[in-house]
Write a structure and sequence with these properties.
Blueprint (H helix, E strand, L loop, with lengths): L4 H22 L3 H8 L3 H24 L5 H20 L4 H15 L5 H8 L2 H32 L3 H21 L18 H10 L1 H31 L4 H26 L5 H16 L11 H28 L6 H25 L6 H24 L3
Helix pairs in contact: 1-7, 1-8, 2-3, 3-5, 3-14, 4-5, 4-8, 7-11, 7-13, 10-13, 10-14, 10-15, 11-13, 12-13, 12-15
């Protein structure tokens, strides 16, 4: 068993990034996938939404099924994702790709259990610092994916994207096996408990209002963050005829710079400000930064305006991820398994929302795109305000 801090950090960051890696790699390939499979761009966006809906369904099942077999389920999920990603590379039509992607979605449904493994390793300020370091690594991994996807698509074919996903998942499986002590509490020998009732879950949320309010914020923020890589290829590749490689390079360079700066800035922020104060400020700045897109239309400054606004968005969302999870998991929840399942479910539902919204937007201007993101963060701002009202003065 390897217990090196930085090795653990890398493996956890990779596992937590798998959904983002999936979206990032496919982002520049959305128009090409539609062309090669003989379907519309909307069909590809719907395929992504079905994959995310499958992940949400699996996470909902783990909300109903109490389980302390976190590491075992995580390993099974990673193995399933790896296998179905490889099968996706062998698909020759839309229907078979859809079936394999449903399997990938089921595998990704177990990823939220990594949060419980983190909590087993660390607590208190250590957990905050580990979360912050994970955010820094994710801020490097995530932006690289559209560039890698663009390069693979330019020099190989769309099938190579799924081969890359298989390799990422294989690294995660090996890393998890070499990091976990299987003799300890991750896989205890106890019988499966009975199914939770919906009413007991509602009671748990009522008794833990911060969990529900943060989960809504996570859903809105993750949804907004996923709308960008789903919609930007339509604006830039499909409408403005950018190459996948040019798109990937622009997306990667901007998001990597702003997220790395944001992640290091968050290390300073968490030592000087409260989680809710940081979250409130970030939602406000995101809404203000998105507002100009309400009036943007195609023209000489269209692409630059979109990319600058995207940079502002990803800079401030970098602060949100670690502060959300610290609010939820830093106070020792009564039922960590249920808390992790609810939190993970809200994260995945965000992907479903983003994919469905991106498939219904009007792409002749950015009004509906901007309005959707503003609405999401306005709701998130209100939820954070409710949390602040409940906190002692």
């Amino acid at each position: 068993m390897l217990t090196n801090f930085y090795y653990r950090l890398l493996i956890i960051a990779l596992i937590m990034s798998l959904t983002k890696i999936y979206t990032g790699l496919l982002s520049p390939a959305i128009p090409a996938l539609a062309l090669n499979l003989g379907v519309s761009i909307t069909n590809i966006q719907q395929l992504i939404s079905i994959r995310m809906a499958t992940t949400a369904l699996v996470k909902f099942l783990f909300v109903l099924i109490p389980s302390s077999l976190c590491t075992l389920w995580l390993l099974i999920g990673l193995g399933l994702f790896s296998l179905t990603s490889l099968l996706s590379a062998l698909c020759s039509d839309y229907q078979s790709l859809l079936i394999s992607q449903i399997g990938s979605g089921a595998g990704l449904g177990t990823m939220m259990f990594v949060l419980m493994i983190m909590r087993d390793w660390f607590s208190g300020q250590q957990l905050r610092q580990f979360n912050s370091n994970v955010t820094i690594l994710i801020s490097i991994i995530h932006p690289l994916c559209p560039l890698i996807g663009g390069l693979l698509l330019t020099h190989f074919s769309w099938e190579s994207l799924f081969v890359a996903m298989t390799l990422f998942a294989g690294i995660c499986v090996f890393g998890l096996i070499s990091t976990i002590d299987f003799q300890k509490s991750h896989i205890p020998s106890q019988p499966l408990q009975r199914l939770r009732s919906i009413s007991s879950i509602i009671r748990y949320l009522r008794d833990n209002p911060t969990l529900g309010l943060v989960s809504i914020q996570l859903m809105m923020t993750r949804g907004g963050a996923l709308i960008w890589p789903l919609c930007l290829p339509v604006f830039l590749i499909d409408q403005l005829s950018w190459s996948p490689e040019k798109f990937g390079l622009a997306f990667t360079s901007i998001t990597m710079i702003v997220q790395i700066v944001g992640a290091f800035s968050n290390r300073f922020a968490i030592t000087n400000f409260s989680e809710t104060g940081i979250i409130r400020s970030c939602h406000g700045m995101i809404i203000a930064g998105i507002l100009p897109l309400v009036f943007l239309s195609y023209g000489p400054t269209f692409a630059n305006s979109l990319l600058i606004t995207m940079g502002i968005y990803y800079f401030f969302t970098t602060f949100l991820w670690s502060n959300y999870s610290t609010l939820v998991f830093g106070n020792y929840p009564k039922d960590p398994s249920l808390t992790s399942s609810i939190y993970g479910l809200s994260d995945t539902l965000a992907g479903v929302i983003a994919a469905l919204v991106s498939a219904t937007l009007y792409y002749q201007n950015t009004f509906s795109f901007a309005a959707a993101i503003i609405a999401m963060h306005s709701l998130a701002y209100y939820c954070n305000h409710r949390i602040e009202q409940r906190q002692p003065r």
